[in-house]
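Task 17 of the worksheet. Students: predict the tertiary structure of the chain below and write it out as structure tokens. Keep your answer in the requested format; marks are given for formatting as well as content.
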Amino acid sequence: MDTVFSFDVFDTCLTRIHARPTDVFAAAARRLWADRPEPFPEAEVHDIVRLRTVAETRARRNLVDREDLSLDAICACLPVPNRWGITAEALYRAELTAEAACLRPVEAVRAAVRALRAQGRRIVFVTDMYLPGDFIREQLAAHGFYRDGDGLYVSGEVGLCKWSGRLFRHVLAREGVAAGALCHVGDNPVSDVRVARRLGIRARLSTASRLAPREARLARPLPGFDPAASLLAGAARTVRCATGPQPDALCDLAADVAAPVFLAFTAWVLTEAARAGIERLHFVSRDGQILYRLARTLRRVWPELPEPHYIHGSRQAWFLPAVGRCTREALDWLFVPGHCRRPEVLLAKLGLTPSDLPDPGPAGAARAAFWSRELPPGREGDFWDLLERPANARCVEAKARQARELAARYFADRTKGLSAFAVVDLGWTLKTQAALETVFRESGLDVPLCGYYFGVSAARSDGLAGRYRAFLVESTRHLDPAETLNPLFRNVNLLEQCFALADHGQVAGYRLEDGQSVADLRPAASGQLALAGRVQGAILAVAEAWAGEAAASGLGPGSLVALTPAVVANLVDFLADPCPGEAAALGQVLVGDDQNESRYRRLVRPLGLGDLIRAWLSRRGWRPWPAYEASCDWLEGGIALSRPWLRPVLRTRRAFALLRDWRKSC
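Model answer:
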């Protein structure tokens, strides 16, 4: 006897963009109000949901010789008249519309159904559900599950349920098979598995559509119901469920961690800029590319928001043009604590090589080794003495003037007609805004500059107060590792070089092309492009799912901003205490530490006692190995990947401080 394969429908084949099934009732309530001119108070949504719940309770009390009921029966028990004037027909249509809009396929189950169908297997669908069978059939077909000839058994139509076992018996009788010839897949451990196995049916639990731990936390950020939070968690789940039989852990993290916080930040930028009367926002490459694409997604749904534009810029492109005189004060950005200290790398930040300097200094070629070796602490003067030689200083200043002219030409057309030039970036020190302001001022571009940033660190530049807004601000108290935001500002490389990767190379500066100043892009590594595509695809998929359903449900971008505490807490929790699987998902990511991308190290790798010993020796000034390449950027992730017995040791305050100082000194 051939085996018949049976699949549950909801939360097995199909999942919802809302975190909980009952959230669909609220979405239906908003649709009932959609044609009314006055705003819909959230309290009214709750009251209409309660009205619908009362109708279902009444309908279930009226059940006679049936285990389940239909949506028709529920709507027939709607209290009429009611103060909203909602009719049974209107409620019926609104609920079906809301259900159809929020359903998404679970790709792993769809792939399994297709594989069985290719083998010529019999497929049936069995569900405990009040929705009409024709509607369920249409949705299964629309999402690639149902084909003509398949079986569909719905408890609301048959009057029997899986939880009692009677619906399974009905299926066996209609299909003409013994219990052992039926193989059932479902998400409910009781009705889909335990009851089925008790009848002799082979059953398997499907958990793909369950909310992941981070999604579950996002879904309930407040004591009360928050529809935007439910929708955000559900959108992340639908993207995760769309990855197919082979899960992509990196894309799952992008959907569950990066998408919520980047969406909230982008919504904050757009609403704050609109409130300030800014009509155009300029998202700075490369970190700003995903933010720019998120802004475009939101603006397609809410066109009244400021218009997003993408501009090419970087530290490499803006710091040099801001240099007027070749002095140590003007070039203090060449030496960054913890970054590469090889003189040839420092010189490359100025767009120069050692052979470009007209005055090689004493001993000339004998100093060749000087350029390729790390400068020991306290020997920075050797580099400055060489760079400040008159001929070399003039060379640097000429290079800066040339770069400033090209930068001015690049921004000349982009600033025309603007009362303010607003830039959007991840942020941190604000030195890029200060450099761009200098370029504007020295080039005669008389346009005030303002910035919107994801975060500004405690080491931010002075003198920009009032000319920037920050989503998150690091204060001096956050420098304590025990403080909430410390893991975030300590791990900005993870945000920049993993979650905010762009699909193009670094902006080295500007060049002339057909009389126009255009960005001079360095080639991007193929691995970076592939990684950027995966991560951005997941983040944008969450945004598109959220925005479309939010607009249909009467929510606006401001509802995302209200979720800021929840999404930031979710991000910080991930950075500070990832599970081993989450840390392992980022194991192939490489990060660099300077604007020339001259060297890389792994974002995360397992840590061992040897690393702790190296950190202890490093504190005492002994580093006999290539320290940067051997170190680890994301310490919390490295601890998560370490041996279980070692993790408590590495998490102690003293051991973690050693590792943190080692990372900084590399």
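Marker's comment: The CA atoms of residues 19 and 291 lie 25 Å apart. The first strand starts at residue 4 and ends at 7.
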